[in-house]
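Chain entry —
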Amino acid sequence: MDSVWARGRVLAVLAVVTAGLLVLHRAVPNSVGRLGSLLETFLPWLGLSVVALLGLALLRRSPTVLVASLLPVAAWVHLFGGLLLPAAEPGPRDLVVVQHNVSDENTDPAGTAHALAAAKPDLVALEELTPSALPAYGRILGPDLPHHAVQGTVGLWSKHPLSGTRSLDIKPREITETWSRGLRTVAHTPHGEIAVYVAHLPSVRIRPGGLASAWRDESAGLLGKALSAEELEAVILLGDLNGTTDDRGLAPLTSQLNAAERGLAFSFPAAFPLARIDQVMARPAAVPHLRALDATGSDHLPVAARVRLPVRPR
């Protein structure tokens, strides 16, 4: 009779492999089908495989699998456990910001605007704005957020005055048609001037050959160069970046900005959110908490975040 420690050796190997993918996901190459980015897009969901392994270990009564499963459990908690911790209490230097791809097929822009206004934000960034829907957003957001800037299909509504608004060129070279999906403006807040960027990076597609993200990656690189050249110290980036903060394709951005410290906030697709591709990032400010809001008429969920501005030295 086999020793109980010999049971489930294949499952134990799978547990070790899962732990390795979690800890060493950057080692998975992107040269073929951008498999590394594909893995990183859905990295938190590897936690489900840990649950399955633990269940099978109990069925097999295998202590080997139980012990081996502790490795991916520890790896998952190390990577994502902090996001599940309670958020710190709001502070006096916090700004409430909302980010939402409202969808150019949204049939209820007024209802969407009311839902966003209910979060009592200081800033609201929108993507996929259409000329027909723009008046509804302005009418409903305007009373509490009287300052706004729109460039192409992206816009920002603000409680605080804006200045220096300009379009941001993040268009990939192969796109030849009219394409304006980025803006930069300055918000004049009681805590100082903040450069606010709103961006909608190109979509990615999962195809038989892997993840098609070349345009998204190129656009992220252009946005990263703009952020590197930014002269103001305080920066907030809001946008549908079509990638998670774990995805190496967004490294030009995540290497420069702070991501959310708390909250998974999966935002896409709205019907069954699998990933957070709508992002709020900042520097040197922190983003203590980010949460998904209720569904609107869009295929994305809105996300709301608190951005904590640092105390300026006197």
About this structure: The two ends are 75 Å apart (CA to CA). The mean pLDDT is 93. Helices lie at 9-23, 35-41, 46-60, 63-80, 109-117, 134-141, 214-228, 251-254. The longest helix spans residues 63-80.
